[in-house]
TrEMBL record:
Residues 502-536 form the Alpha-D-phosphohexomutase C-terminal domain. GO terms for molecular function: isomerase activity. Keywords: Isomerase, Magnesium, Metal-binding, Phosphoprotein. This is Phospho-sugar mutase. The keyword NAD does not apply. It holds the Pfam family PGM_PMM_III. It comes from Microbacterium candidum. Belongs to the phosphohexose mutase family. SUPFAM superfamilies: Phosphoglucomutase, C-terminal domain, Phosphoglucomutase, first 3 domains. Its EC number is 5.4.2.-. Its cofactor is Mg(2+).
Length: 553
């Protein structure tokens, strides 16, 4: 293909307002090649300017580079100006706090945002250094800010970055949800269409947050679970996955009274290139290999891992039955143990999890006389559950301290888990013993997931449409007792592209498209009389669901 005049004009207009020397050079070279007939360059240019990186309930997230469909300083400036316009529309001279992690350009994007907020007449406060995402969420409430921005792409690939938006006031520092996301997006689109970013007013009159804000987060999080007597002598391993968690977590561990961990030294300092992992997500195969190696060498009893912006927690325990002697607990296993802890501590209120997370949390809530809420996926929904005292999602996200942070927080969750584990350790019990006791008390729950990656997105639509049209009466030999289509919403749940099948015997299947990848996901949950029974039921269900999806495909 050759570049058409409209595409070239859009690229030239973008180039003229780009303040970043690196992306200007990148785009100049691409334009030169495209203008001389290079088809690969023309195709690359078309991809970069094929629409805009969409601003939604997760803010912005995408690959770094020049163009409206990439993350860059032009797009960030437009987003900051749009957010400023939204805030001014809803109140006079509000405060905005801006945080950033250790990824490439995170600090640059944060300073750009602070200057644009200040230039728009807002009180802009930049966090004092790179810090975990939950510290920013905490600061929104601590500083009584109207909004917060965190520059991070969490555990995305190294060349990605993103822009998460939180709201204060009645939203209590939670991530944005509709209609705020659409209103902010409309302001961004208007500014992008009418104003070049070099014409946006800027000011260096922003301030830097005092260290007391970070100290307050450390103190509040250390109080989540002060070390019990059983913590003495604990040998454990910690990895920050090349992210920003260690400095803050180390201070909390010390203040709470836990012994210092053995660290995975190659991964402990922030490094946006993530040199030791193919994908900086503790859920990914191989991501914890260095932690396992460190644990074996040090004779550790436990592994604690944060993802790069420390809003997620992964836990691994010794297991002689698996190769290497260590296994990572699933997000559901950690969530159910932390939910059990939260229920015992709660004085009323509710437990909440995403609708694709284990139904075991509802069993815990009922056992303790607490309310239970299943929400759409994402902590923007979980954090807003009425009366929430604990919430989780199976993708390693946990909210254990809602009075401090209204978002997933891998640091406070790690302290809560340490407290629970060391209390059991003082009684001569292990994490495996806690899991067994959970099953004996509430039922033996087991979960699995089928991810169907496609090259053609229409396949996902065809499968979802086929499920809705067929409304299967059984999955394999198991009767479907209830079929829920959430396209129009259901009960307290807003509309979503989700189908739920409740099966005889307590099993459940939830099917939905991935929100971030070209995948269809099926979440499988069973409840058995014993752990072995649950594993057998899950294996059967997995085979039956895979056959159903293959047939619909």
């Amino acid at each position: 293909m050759s570049a058409d005049e409209g595409l070239l004009a859009r690229a030239q207009a973008w180039l003229a307002q780009d303040p970043d020397a690196e992306t200007r050079l990148e785009l100049e070279e691409l334009l030169l090649r495209a203008e001389t007939g290079d088809e690969d360059a023309a195709a690359d240019l078309a991809r970069r300017f094929d629409g805009r990186l969409e601003f939604g309930t997760a803010g912005l997230r995408g690959e770094l580079g020049a163009g409206s469909a990439r993350m860059n300083r032009v797009l960030v400036a437009q987003a900051a100006a749009g957010l400023a316009a939204y805030l001014l529309e809803h109140g006079a001279e509000p405060t905005v706090v801006i945080g950033y992690d250790g990824r490439r350009n995170s600090h640059v994007f944060a300073v750009d945002s602070a200057e644009i907020f200040a230039g728009a007449g807002l009180r802009a406060i930049l966090m004092p250094r790179l810090l975990p995402t939950p510290v920013l969420a905490f600061a929104v409430r601590e500083l009584d800010a109207a909004a917060g921005v965190m520059v991070t792409a969490s555990h995305n690939p190294p060349n990605d970055n993103g822009y998460k938006v939180y709201l204060g006031g009645a939203d209590e520092g939670s991530q944005i949800v509709p209609p705020a996301d659409a209103e902010i997006a409309a302001h961004i689109e208007r500014i992008a269409a009418t104003t070049t970013v070099d014409a946006l007013p800027r000011s260096v009159g922003y301030s830097t947050a005092a260290e007391e804000v970070v100290d307050a987060y450390i103190a509040a999080t250390a109080s989540v679970a002060p070390a019990p007597a059983g913590a003495a002598g604990l040998r454990w391993v910690y990895t920050a996955m090349h992210g920003v968690g260690w400095e803050t977590f180390r201070a909390i561990v010390d203040r709470a009274g836990y012994p210092a961990p053995v660290t995975v030294t190659a991964q402990i300092e922030p490094d946006g290139t993530f040199p030791t992992v193919a994908f900086p997500n503790p859920e990914e195969p191989g991501a914890l290999d260095l932690a396992y190696e460190t644990a074996r060498e040090s004779g550790a009893e436990l592994i604690i891992a944060n993802d790069p912006d420390a809003d997620r927690l992964a836990v691994a325990i010794p297991d002689a039955s698996v190769e290497g002697g260590w296994r990572r607990l699933t997000g559901n296993e950690v969530g159910l143990l932390l939910g059990w802890r939260g229920a015992r501590l709660a004085d009323g209120g509710s437990l909440a999890c995403s609708l694709v997370s284990s139904p075991g949390l509802e069993a815990v809530a009922r056992h303790y006389g607490l309310d239970f809420h299943a929400t759409l996926t994402g902590f923007k929904w979980i954090s807003r559950a009425p009366g929430i005292r604990f919430g989780f999602e199976e993708a390693l996200g946990y909210l254990v301290n809602p009075d401090t942070v209204r978002d997933k927080d891998g640091v406070s969750a790690a302290i809560a888990f340490l407290g629970m584990v060391t209390a059991a350790r003082g009684e001569g019990r292990t994490v495996a013993d806690l899991l067994a006791e959970f099953g004996d008390t509430f039922g033996h729950f087991a979960s699995d997931q089928i991810s169907l990656r496609v090259d053609d997105l229409s396949i996902i639509g065809r499968i979802m449409a086929g499920l809705r049209e067929r409304r299967p009466s059984s999955v394999g030999d198991i009767e479907v007792e209830q079929f829920d289509d959430l396209a129009e919403g259901s009960g307290d749940l807003p509309p979503g592209d989700v189908v739920r099948l409740f099966l005889a015997g307590g099993s459940r299947v939830v099917v939905r498209p991935s929100g971030t990848e070209p995948k269809l996901k099926a979440y499988l949950d069973v409840r058995g009389d014993t752990a072995e029974d649950a594993r057998e039921r899950l294996a059967t269900l997995r085979a039956d669901v895979a056959a159903l999806l293959d047939e619909l495909r």
